[in-house]
């Protein structure tokens, strides 16, 4: 009897294991099929967008009407944005494809910058027209290469999952039609330098340099990086600290620090600039317990923390609470003007007020003493530019980044329509409406200070 029960049990166990294994296999296959379908869709969408891009740039060359040229160039900008989104969905993170993404970004910036200006008063220069001709030729080359890859993919039923596996395993050197095709695209794009976009565009992009150009101070050592990390995170215990140097060949070098904290039972991650030893970001991945302090108390702790670490002249701009975590954004102040490009974001645990997240990347990229121009519009003139349906609540001067990434002095106007709140930016020099933002009502807590 016992033997019979044992046999039955083993049979049931075997069947159960088989069913479980089959279900696991089916679920894994479903995930792989879903990923493959997404990759295929993104690739064919990308090929389609490049076809549209080549065609749209070609039509701009034949246009004489300024009223037609502006919307056509706006379409070029829209298409490049969609193409870049498609590239971002492909498994190319481990394969250099940054030149192609940069090329698409530059086409978008060039076309947008040209489309938004008054082409009747300021028509295309000979240099810009030549740039359009070169962009058309180069877009044609990219189109042809992608079509070759697409033909191979469709003819031979090639899978993008194989590309992902080849890249992840470091075997991208093997014969892979998709990888080889994208490498050819990247090589061709690399030959087309930014200078080909003309002097006007090159000058514009010089203003958008994304290096930490305003950092001051000497280069620090790994040991100094450890000491900075200890002070900044307030680690006074014996902890296992690992440091690695990163950023070779990039615009800036930095140290990555990992701290294994037995006291907090967590690992803390931090990046510090090599020049000057400035904290770029911090993440303390620990469990957050029951809330014991208010959001306002956490905001005060965040503000004092910034001041103690030599981040001066910052004002709380936004605060929100998610479960037992307070999230805060601080912006720099100069001459009582908010400077939004110089922003720092922080997370504070509401169980004990500890800083568990810090990001100063935007601040370090942009912070410097600015020469702020005088306004040419009064606030009364700026308010006349606002939709009459908006009930104005408050206003102030602020510096923001416009759609081209350039800084603009604006009147920041807060107002409501019915139950919705809006933030409207009117350029204080030329009166143009730079941005309109609808504030999210879903945020648990929103503060204006």
Largest sheet: 12 strands, mixed
Number of strands: 12
Intertermini distance: 79 Å
Tell me roughly what share of residues is in helical segments.
Answer: 40-55%
Shape: globular
Rg, nearest Å: 27 Å
Order of helices and strands: HHHHHHHHEEEEHEEEEHHEEEE
Task: Identify low-pLDDT runs.
Answer: 442-449
Kindly estimate the percentage of residues that lie in beta strands according to DSSP: 15-25%
Q: Give average pLDDT, whole number.
A: 80
Structural class: alpha+beta
Counting DSSP H or I runs of 4 or more residues, the number of helices is 11
Brief synopsis:
The chain has about 450 residues and is α+β, with helices and mostly antiparallel strands.
Protein model, in words:
The protein is globular. 45% of the residues lie in helices and 23% in strands. Strands 1, 2, 3, 4, 5, 6, 7, 8, 9, 10, 11 and 12 form a 12-stranded mixed beta sheet that branches. It has 449 residues and is an alpha+beta fold. Residues 442-449 have low confidence and may be disordered. The chain has 11 helices and 12 strands. The protein has helices at 2-61, 66-88, 98-115, 126-156, 160-168, 177-190, 199-206, 222-233, 295-308, 361-366, 379-383; strands at 240-246, 254-261, 266-273, 279-285, 314-322, 325-334, 337-349, 355-359, 391-401, 407-417, 420-427, 433-438. α1 packs antiparallel against α4.
Please render the helix and strand layout as text.
Blueprint (H helix, E strand, L loop, with lengths): L1 H60 L4 H23 L9 H18 L10 H31 L3 H9 L8 H14 L8 H8 L15 H12 L6 E7 L7 E8 L4 E8 L5 E7 L9 H14 L5 E9 L2 E10 L2 E13 L5 E5 L1 H6 L12 H5 L7 E11 L5 E11 L2 E8 L5 E6 L11
Parallel strand pairs: 7-9
Antiparallel strand pairs: 1-2, 2-3, 3-4, 4-8, 5-6, 6-7, 7-8, 9-10, 10-11, 11-12
Helix pairs in contact: 1-2, 1-4, 2-3, 3-6, 4-6
